[in-house]
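[Meeting: bench + compute handoff]

Bench side (C.D.) handed over the final construct sequence. Compute side (W.E.) agreed to return the predicted structure before the next meeting so the bench team could plan truncations. Sequence as handed over:
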Amino acid sequence: MQSTIKVQGSDAKTFLNAQSTVKIKDNASLYCAFLSPKSEIKGLAYLINSNSSEFFLLLKDQSQAESLKVHLEKFIILDDVELSLVSDLDLTEEIKTRIPDDLIFEDYQETDSLVKLHQSGNHNILDKYFPEGKGCFPGQEVLSKYINIGLKKRAERAQEYTEEARDIFTQAEDKSEWIKAKELLNKAISEDPKNEEAYETLGVILGREENYKEAIEIMKKLDEVNPTSIMAKTNLSIFYMRLGDKETAEEYKAKATVAQFDEALKK
């Protein structure tokens, strides 16, 4: 059951900025993480800024809240900061209205890190808990090194796989050669889940194979990665039409038209 830590005092904002993975602005409502110097997760929370000296950290359950409270109290030395566990009854209506309906906290073990969760397949976790690449907090060096070096190398490998797969696909004399292309594209997506070209090419191949259900799943992922993708919406319209789902096909056709219009306005 969800539990909450109340953080108050004249130094509350400065303290939380020094300890969390996000930049805390006035009237903030956002996810944040608290890490050890080795980047191990000490808490995943949703922060709500009531005012300049009062903040609420919502966590998945009481055990996690108690653990994070103990961790943070170690860093309070001369700061005017007080931490306390509060119940939902202590939250004002204004605070309650700022809690998202789709509030979700990831499960983690004591030795897990954001890097480990990202590598295990939770590809949105860095954007969720480390959206602006903030510096100066415990674990920042490890996290930034992974993003600036590790992810960069994986993205480069993904692009190499994608280009090789595209060459195989475009030059193939027989459909049996597409198997190797699909393997490479899946490797590319595994290395870099934001590689739009890999999704596009894989979706096209699956469509050519008339494997429309899988092609739809791939194009939906592309649409998640890039909500402005005209390619994703156009192909989704085509694939749904091939499956006989005219209503959904028309919906995506309309979305593609809007995306094309928005793109034209940018030029």
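W.E. noted at the follow-up: The chain has a mean pLDDT of 92. C.D. will use this when planning the next construct.
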